[in-house]
Amino acid sequence: MAKRTCKKDDSIAQYERRIYDLEQLIDIARSFSSTIDTNTLLESIVFSCMAQLHVADAGIFVLDSLNSDNFILKTKQNIMDPNNNKNYQIAYSDPAVSFLTENKNSITMDILQKNCPDSAAIKIFQELNPTLIVPLLQKNHLSGILFLGERFYFDAETGIDYTEYEKNLVLSIGSLAAIAINNATLIERSSTDMMTQLKLKYFFFNVLTEKLDNAMSEKKPLSVIMFDIDFFKHFNDTYGHECGDYVLKQVAFLIKQNLREEDLASRYGGEEFTVLLNETTKDAAIAVAERIRSCIENHDFVFNNQHMHVTISCGVAVFDHESNPVTIAKQLVNQADQGLYMSKHNGRNRVTYAPPSLVSLDDEESK
């Protein structure tokens, strides 16, 4: 009688575990679907897997179809060594990619080595030391590779790291992750200027509107910088439009290189760019604009063996809940645009702070 009761208790415990895990999957799906920022999403996926599978570290390789067709390690979290973030890439043509796509299951390192002895990815994974490698499949297409590191506990009795139930659980999480990554990638592509790899104007305004609302409620500063390439038409007319494209790409790269991860740069249109600096004061914003201006002025632009001198003019506007309480994103951009106009009017290749009085808060065009 005791044995029968024991089996019954085990069955109840298993069903309770399954119900709990299903509830967790629903919460995870809700979390993934509510995030469209790729970096935030990847962090959410990694932390969810670390929590569900009780591992000390994990990471995700994501397919970079725009630039290289390689899987790039985008996110890696390690509780014991949080600053260890090396750059790793796995070629799309690597045998490990084909095996993960066809196998469709979570695998261990020994399985990967056995089936893909010539894979260059093996050396990479050996450095990462995963206990489990999980394919992120979207309609039989591999969009990413998740790996899980050392577990907090080890079942000495069975000698295995993961049960079949746990492998299926992480595959389910991986399926949800693959769908979310695909959706986030589509949004990212549709909101990105393909030439400069910066965000488009409409996306910039959406983010600026959200950040401005937060700045108003929290009474924190927020800054906008507008840039324009000086005499841009000269490069097109003298060296051709291919040269103009080169200048645009280089300027965009240098702008982004001088920003923080949390800042947002966009191609506003033509040769104009905008930058959003969250929680940034007037002096700090002017310093950022001046750093970018100086960087571009001193950069050696070389196109078809021709060395070119490129400069930009800048305008800076700052939201402040007391001195400049703008409520509409367009108003703040208009102020930065007026600062840009002043820079051009006063000789170009300079940074000008736009006083709030330049653009009326009741500007009908901004409403």
Automatic annotation (TrEMBL):
<feature type="domain" description="GGDEF">
    <location>
        <begin position="220"/>
        <end position="356"/>
    </location>
</feature>
<dbReference type="GO" id="GO:0005886">
    <property type="term" value="C:plasma membrane"/>
</dbReference>
<dbReference type="Pfam" id="PF00990">
    <property type="entry name" value="GGDEF"/>
</dbReference>
<dbReference type="InterPro" id="IPR043128">
    <property type="entry name" value="Rev_trsase/Diguanyl_cyclase"/>
</dbReference>
<dbReference type="GO" id="GO:0043709">
    <property type="term" value="P:cell adhesion involved in single-species biofilm formation"/>
</dbReference>
<dbReference type="InterPro" id="IPR050469">
    <property type="entry name" value="Diguanylate_Cyclase"/>
</dbReference>
<dbReference type="GO" id="GO:0052621">
    <property type="term" value="F:diguanylate cyclase activity"/>
</dbReference>
<protein>
    <recommendedName>
        <fullName>diguanylate cyclase</fullName>
        <ecNumber>2.7.7.65</ecNumber>
    </recommendedName>
</protein>
<dbReference type="InterPro" id="IPR048092">
    <property type="entry name" value="Dguan_cyc_DgcA"/>
</dbReference>
<dbReference type="InterPro" id="IPR029016">
    <property type="entry name" value="GAF-like_dom_sf"/>
</dbReference>
<dbReference type="InterPro" id="IPR029787">
    <property type="entry name" value="Nucleotide_cyclase"/>
</dbReference>
<dbReference type="GO" id="GO:1902201">
    <property type="term" value="P:negative regulation of bacterial-type flagellum-dependent cell motility"/>
</dbReference>
<dbReference type="InterPro" id="IPR000160">
    <property type="entry name" value="GGDEF_dom"/>
</dbReference>
